């Protein structure tokens, strides 16, 4: 897309691609100052752009948004250069690229990389980033944090009897119960299958008190997951297929501070604890023994 303006922003000429993208007619757009098409949040960027034009005669490429005629905004990448015309006027020529598809693809890629597609919870990648952030914060505050690993039992039996869609409904309900059972500062993630993890941050600087705090969270999670699950599996051909399902959970907890260990050591601590819980029949909570 091409536009031709005075340095003041008065539009002199635009091509058909620009008209199509912004929804204006040629008559309408030539009565509008180009800066009116830029959202106010970009005011500082516009000032910097003008300064760059005055200094070196060009700017960009830079990303911003433009306002369509209907008031919606769309992302663009803009470059510009000042050229002197035969009448002596300095004219700004702008090259504008609609990057809506690129932005949409970037969002999809980000979500695929960092979030679980079924539950929309953070996945292992994003969880690991947040774990590193918590460790860094603990170094400054001397506080403890806890990893609470959760393996939900009896999911396979539901899948086997009613199909994968029923299992997906169960996992969605599990994720909802987990989110509703933790504090706003905590992170709930799904590692895959029926395996979830809670990162509980901002626990006490005292190890014993931090362990008690983590235990309260873990017991709350276990109680929430143990309540009956009720689903309507009906469809158009078979309405009102109501089922009630019961689950238990195995929970392993590792309380840690910001020592020099690798973050994956803390994950292994919680994982080893949950393994021991499952060996004894599940439906209980076990803390990792740091003396092991």
TrEMBL record:
Residues 143-290 form the GGDEF domain. Its EC number is 2.7.7.65. One of its GO terms (molecular function) is diguanylate cyclase activity. Keywords: Nucleotidyltransferase, Transferase. Pfam families: GGDEF, PAS_9. This is Diguanylate cyclase. It comes from Aeromonas salmonicida subsp. pectinolytica 34mel.
């Amino acid at each position: 897309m091409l536009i031709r303006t005075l340095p003041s922003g008065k539009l002199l000429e635009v091509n058909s691609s620009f008209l199509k993208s912004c929804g204006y007619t040629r008559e309408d757009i030539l009565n509008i100052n180009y800066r009116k098409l830029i959202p106010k949040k970009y005011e500082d960027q516009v000032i910097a752009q003008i300064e760059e034009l005055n200094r070196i005669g060009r700017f960009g490429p830079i990303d911003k948004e433009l306002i369509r005629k209907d008031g919606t905004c769309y992302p663009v990448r803009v470059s510009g250069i000042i050229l002197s015309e035969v009448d002596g006027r300095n004219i700004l020529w702008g090259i504008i690229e609609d990057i809506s598809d690129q932005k949409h693809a970037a969002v999809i890629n980000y979500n695929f990389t960092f979030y679980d597609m079924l539950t929309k919870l953070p996945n292992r990648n994003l969880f690991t980033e947040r774990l590193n952030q918590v460790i860094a914060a603990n170094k400054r505050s001397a506080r403890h944090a806890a990893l609470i690993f959760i393996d939900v039992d009896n999911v396979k039996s539901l899948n086997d009897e009613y199909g994968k869609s029923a299992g997906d409904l169960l996992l969605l309900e599990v994720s909802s119960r987990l989110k509703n059972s933790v504090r706003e500062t905590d992170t709930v993630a799904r590692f895959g299958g029926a395996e979830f993890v809670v990162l509980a941050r901002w626990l006490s600087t005292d190890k014993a008190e931090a362990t008690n705090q983590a235990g309260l969270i873990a017991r709350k999670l276990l109680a929430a997951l143990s309540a009956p699950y009720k689903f309507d599996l009906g469809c158009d051909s078979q309405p009102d297929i109501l089922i009630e399902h019961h689950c238990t959970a195995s929970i392993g907890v590792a309380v840690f501070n910001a020592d020099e260990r690798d973050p994956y050591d803390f994950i292994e601590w919680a994982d080893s604890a949950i393994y021991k819980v499952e060996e004894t029949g599940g439906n209980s909570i076990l803390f990792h023994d740091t003396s092991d």
